[in-house]
Protein backbone atom coordinates (compact mmCIF):
# COMPACT_ATOMS: atom_id res chain seq x y z
CA UNK A 1 0.00 0.00 0.00
CA UNK A 2 1.21 3.50 -0.77
CA UNK A 3 -0.05 6.94 0.21
CA UNK A 4 -0.12 9.63 -2.50
CA UNK A 5 -0.66 13.34 -1.90
CA UNK A 6 -2.15 15.16 -4.89
CA UNK A 7 -2.39 18.90 -5.45
CA UNK A 8 -4.57 20.48 -8.15
CA UNK A 9 -5.01 24.18 -8.99
CA UNK A 10 -8.04 25.55 -10.80
CA UNK A 11 -6.43 28.69 -12.23
CA UNK A 12 -3.41 29.37 -14.46
CA UNK A 13 -1.62 31.27 -11.68
CA UNK A 14 -1.25 28.15 -9.57
CA UNK A 15 -0.54 28.50 -5.87
CA UNK A 16 1.32 27.05 -2.91
CA UNK A 17 0.69 24.02 -0.70
CA UNK A 18 2.88 23.23 2.30
CA UNK A 19 3.36 19.76 3.78
CA UNK A 20 5.48 18.74 6.75
CA UNK A 21 6.02 16.20 9.55
CA UNK A 22 4.36 13.13 8.04
CA UNK A 23 4.50 10.10 10.31
CA UNK A 24 3.04 6.59 10.56
CA UNK A 25 2.22 4.56 13.65
CA UNK A 26 1.19 0.91 14.14
CA UNK A 27 -1.58 1.95 16.58
CA UNK A 28 -4.93 3.56 15.76
CA UNK A 29 -5.19 7.34 15.57
CA UNK A 30 -7.07 9.21 18.26
CA UNK A 31 -9.03 12.34 17.48
CA UNK A 32 -7.72 14.73 20.13
CA UNK A 33 -10.15 17.50 19.13
CA UNK A 34 -13.24 15.42 19.96
CA UNK A 35 -14.32 15.26 23.58
CA UNK A 36 -14.70 11.78 25.10
CA UNK A 37 -18.19 10.46 25.74
CA UNK A 38 -19.62 10.92 29.23
CA UNK A 39 -22.80 9.07 30.19
CA UNK A 40 -23.30 11.42 33.15
CA UNK A 41 -23.24 14.52 30.94
CA UNK A 42 -25.37 12.92 28.21
CA UNK A 43 -28.36 12.11 30.44
CA UNK A 44 -30.59 13.94 32.92
CA UNK A 45 -33.29 13.26 35.52
CA UNK A 46 -34.16 16.99 35.72
CA UNK A 47 -34.13 17.05 39.52
CA UNK A 48 -31.81 20.08 39.69
CA UNK A 49 -32.07 21.71 36.27
CA UNK A 50 -32.00 20.94 32.54
CA UNK A 51 -28.46 19.50 32.83
CA UNK A 52 -26.88 19.83 29.37
CA UNK A 53 -30.20 19.94 27.53
CA UNK A 54 -31.51 23.20 26.06
CA UNK A 55 -34.33 24.61 23.93
CA UNK A 56 -34.84 26.83 20.91
CA UNK A 57 -34.09 30.48 21.61
CA UNK A 58 -37.43 31.61 20.18
CA UNK A 59 -39.53 29.48 22.48
CA UNK A 60 -39.64 27.42 25.64
CA UNK A 61 -41.86 24.45 24.89
CA UNK A 62 -40.52 22.35 27.79
CA UNK A 63 -40.89 23.33 31.45
CA UNK A 64 -39.56 21.71 34.63
CA UNK A 65 -42.49 20.89 36.91
CA UNK A 66 -42.82 19.11 40.24
CA UNK A 67 -45.45 16.92 41.90
CA UNK A 68 -47.76 19.90 42.42
CA UNK A 69 -49.01 21.09 40.01
CA UNK A 70 -48.82 17.73 38.29
CA UNK A 71 -50.96 15.99 35.73
CA UNK A 72 -49.88 12.62 37.11
CA UNK A 73 -50.88 11.73 40.66
CA UNK A 74 -47.91 9.37 40.86
CA UNK A 75 -45.47 12.26 40.33
CA UNK A 76 -42.29 12.12 38.31
CA UNK A 77 -40.80 8.81 37.21
CA UNK A 78 -37.58 9.03 39.25
CA UNK A 79 -39.04 9.10 42.75
CA UNK A 80 -42.63 10.26 42.50
CA UNK A 81 -41.69 13.42 44.40
CA UNK A 82 -39.28 15.15 42.05
CA UNK A 83 -39.11 17.06 38.80
CA UNK A 84 -39.71 16.14 35.19
CA UNK A 85 -40.15 18.03 31.91
CA UNK A 86 -43.59 18.92 30.60
CA UNK A 87 -44.47 20.17 27.11
CA UNK A 88 -47.90 21.76 27.42
CA UNK A 89 -49.41 22.57 24.04
CA UNK A 90 -53.06 22.12 25.03
CA UNK A 91 -55.11 25.06 23.68
CA UNK A 92 -52.07 27.35 23.87
CA UNK A 93 -50.19 26.78 20.63
CA UNK A 94 -50.72 27.31 16.95
CA UNK A 95 -51.25 24.27 14.72
CA UNK A 96 -47.90 22.85 13.71
CA UNK A 97 -46.15 24.16 16.83
CA UNK A 98 -43.11 22.09 17.73
CA UNK A 99 -41.38 22.13 21.11
CA UNK A 100 -37.75 21.05 20.67
CA UNK A 101 -35.44 19.82 23.42
CA UNK A 102 -31.80 19.48 22.34
CA UNK A 103 -29.40 17.08 24.02
CA UNK A 104 -25.62 17.56 24.37
CA UNK A 105 -23.22 16.74 21.55
CA UNK A 106 -22.32 13.05 21.22
CA UNK A 107 -19.03 11.92 19.59
CA UNK A 108 -19.42 10.28 16.21
CA UNK A 109 -18.74 6.70 15.12
CA UNK A 110 -19.97 5.18 18.39
CA UNK A 111 -23.03 3.07 19.07
CA UNK A 112 -25.39 4.46 21.72
CA UNK A 113 -28.37 3.24 23.67
CA UNK A 114 -30.84 6.03 24.42
CA UNK A 115 -33.42 5.34 27.14
CA UNK A 116 -36.08 7.66 28.50
CA UNK A 117 -39.51 7.67 30.11
CA UNK A 118 -42.49 9.56 28.70
CA UNK A 119 -46.20 10.03 29.37
CA UNK A 120 -48.84 11.56 27.12
CA UNK A 121 -52.26 13.02 27.83
CA UNK A 122 -54.93 14.91 25.91
CA UNK A 123 -54.13 14.22 22.25
CA UNK A 124 -56.85 12.80 20.01
CA UNK A 125 -54.29 10.83 18.02
CA UNK A 126 -51.06 9.57 19.58
CA UNK A 127 -48.91 9.17 16.47
CA UNK A 128 -45.94 11.58 16.32
CA UNK A 129 -47.04 13.56 19.39
CA UNK A 130 -43.53 12.85 20.67
CA UNK A 131 -40.63 12.03 18.38
CA UNK A 132 -36.84 11.72 18.64
CA UNK A 133 -34.57 13.06 15.92
CA UNK A 134 -30.85 13.03 15.24
CA UNK A 135 -29.43 16.47 14.45
CA UNK A 136 -25.97 17.38 13.19
CA UNK A 137 -23.85 19.87 15.13
CA UNK A 138 -25.18 22.82 13.12
CA UNK A 139 -28.81 21.85 13.95
CA UNK A 140 -29.46 20.25 10.56
CA UNK A 141 -31.94 17.39 10.80
CA UNK A 142 -30.53 13.99 9.88
CA UNK A 143 -33.37 11.59 10.55
CA UNK A 144 -36.21 10.60 12.85
CA UNK A 145 -35.18 7.56 14.89
CA UNK A 146 -38.30 7.09 17.03
CA UNK A 147 -41.86 8.33 17.49
CA UNK A 148 -44.95 7.47 19.49
CA UNK A 149 -47.48 5.31 17.66
CA UNK A 150 -49.86 4.29 20.41
CA UNK A 151 -49.49 4.67 24.17
CA UNK A 152 -51.66 4.50 27.32
CA UNK A 153 -52.61 7.99 28.45
CA UNK A 154 -51.19 9.44 31.65
CA UNK A 155 -48.86 6.49 32.38
CA UNK A 156 -45.07 6.51 32.42
CA UNK A 157 -43.74 4.39 29.57
CA UNK A 158 -40.14 3.54 28.65
CA UNK A 159 -38.60 3.89 25.21
CA UNK A 160 -35.15 2.77 24.13
CA UNK A 161 -33.34 3.32 20.85
CA UNK A 162 -30.02 2.07 19.50
CA UNK A 163 -28.30 4.37 17.02
CA UNK A 164 -24.90 5.08 15.49
CA UNK A 165 -23.74 7.92 13.25
CA UNK A 166 -20.32 8.65 11.75
CA UNK A 167 -20.32 12.33 12.73
CA UNK A 168 -20.96 14.12 16.06
CA UNK A 169 -24.70 14.41 16.63
CA UNK A 170 -27.35 15.59 19.06
CA UNK A 171 -30.50 13.83 20.20
CA UNK A 172 -33.54 16.10 19.89
CA UNK A 173 -36.95 15.45 21.46
CA UNK A 174 -39.91 17.04 19.65
CA UNK A 175 -43.46 17.54 20.88
CA UNK A 176 -45.90 18.35 18.08
CA UNK A 177 -49.22 20.19 18.21
CA UNK A 178 -51.10 18.97 15.13
CA UNK A 179 -54.12 21.26 15.35
CA UNK A 180 -55.93 23.50 17.82
CA UNK A 181 -58.14 20.60 18.90
CA UNK A 182 -55.38 18.00 18.84
CA UNK A 183 -52.80 19.36 21.28
CA UNK A 184 -52.01 18.00 24.70
CA UNK A 185 -49.41 17.30 27.37
CA UNK A 186 -46.15 15.38 26.95
CA UNK A 187 -43.98 14.50 29.96
CA UNK A 188 -40.33 13.42 29.78
CA UNK A 189 -38.03 12.11 32.51
CA UNK A 190 -34.91 10.07 33.29
CA UNK A 191 -33.03 10.33 29.99
CA UNK A 192 -29.91 8.15 29.82
CA UNK A 193 -27.38 7.58 27.04
CA UNK A 194 -24.95 4.67 27.28
CA UNK A 195 -22.39 3.14 24.96
CA UNK A 196 -23.44 -0.01 23.11
CA UNK A 197 -26.75 -1.37 21.93
CA UNK A 198 -29.94 -1.64 23.97
CA UNK A 199 -29.67 -5.41 24.38
CA UNK A 200 -31.25 -5.77 27.82
CA UNK A 201 -34.35 -3.58 28.17
CA UNK A 202 -35.09 -2.06 31.55
CA UNK A 203 -38.56 -2.48 33.01
CA UNK A 204 -40.79 -0.15 34.95
UniProtKB/TrEMBL annotation:
PROSITE patterns: MAM_1, MAM_2
GO cellular component terms, A-Z: membrane
CDD domains per the UniProt record, alphabetical: MAM
All copies of domain MAM, residue ranges: 1-31, 42-200
Name of the featured protein: MAM domain containing 2
Amino acid sequence: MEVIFEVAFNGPKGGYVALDDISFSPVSCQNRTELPFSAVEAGCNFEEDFCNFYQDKEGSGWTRVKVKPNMYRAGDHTSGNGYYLLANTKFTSQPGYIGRLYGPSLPGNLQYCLRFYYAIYGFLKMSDTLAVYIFEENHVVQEKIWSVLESPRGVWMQAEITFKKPMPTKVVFMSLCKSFWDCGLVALDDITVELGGCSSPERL
